[in-house]
């Protein structure tokens, strides 16, 4: 397969890209440049399919970028909204209660979870996602959701890569046998160790849960990704302890902190001290802008805090930040479809990041940074030898892709076509002046 006249993010000019046996085999300056595509931005007036013959696509100056990464999702919760009831308060803790009832009332069914999760993956993939890091609730004596998502992971592997985090939604020590269920989930095939220290019954219990998380990760040689400090409470500081343990146990670069909304409340003096510790530990971040804008800041007087981790401060502090959808129609969040450009739009707005510097490389937050969290950077991206997992976006630059919420016109996963989509075309009425 060949893709002609593609714009790559880190190189000037247009390129022809060859794919064979699922991998990129050559990337060279474009041989034939149609019209003024080399200089003009891609635009919607270039209509028609990109496919110009059986296995040749002409990007005509549009961007070829790696498939998007959703760095934080809950596939086993997807499409369960309203079962058994809607979240009336909108808060995180009502959602956790609803989920406990959902489990106790027998709603957990392997076939249904598989069907709902597969539909969620299809929604994400239709928006250009090719890599999903999903948390899966293991506070269930039967580990039904884990079994379901392990099967789904295998069933979709031709068109989407799923990484599974063992996630103790109701706590490691707050839930009966939570610690042994975590360990059992790793034996059965979970890829990453999760946690939820701010939900354990006390500060001490939360700290003890972080110790246990690191012990498991060491024992099974796994990465860590913890729901950390997801609470509107400036005294929630498990992140600092995680950074401390990462250095103490030589696990720098192997730990991701998800959500960390309490950071929105940290004062600058503490933040300055914390940032240097986080850098030393090379802690990575998975931030979920739409989800936490919805879940945080309830029940307070004006001005209402929005409870979003400070994305810009983290990036300027030299830390890796990736974005996630978090939820697709579940007790925590009533909508969501894995549209990472939309998540990015929210993230940049709430992060005060609409300047040229950030707009210029904003796709990092939903591509390479997510790959870094997942530990797949060595095989992710458009480079000779890497698996050909990439999309053509109907835009010439990061900024335009975000600005126009551009369509994905072609998606490849390991060299196979996942879908093709024709550019949108508008036929103006005669009353509209040209
Ligand atoms: Zn989450």
Automatic annotation (TrEMBL):
Pfam families: Amidohydro_3 (PF07969). One of its GO terms (molecular function) is deaminase activity. Keywords: Hydrolase, Metal-binding. Residues 55-419 form the Amidohydrolase domain. This is Cytosine deaminase. It comes from Neomicrococcus aestuarii. The lineage of its organism: Bacteria, Bacillati, Actinomycetota, Actinomycetes, Micrococcales.
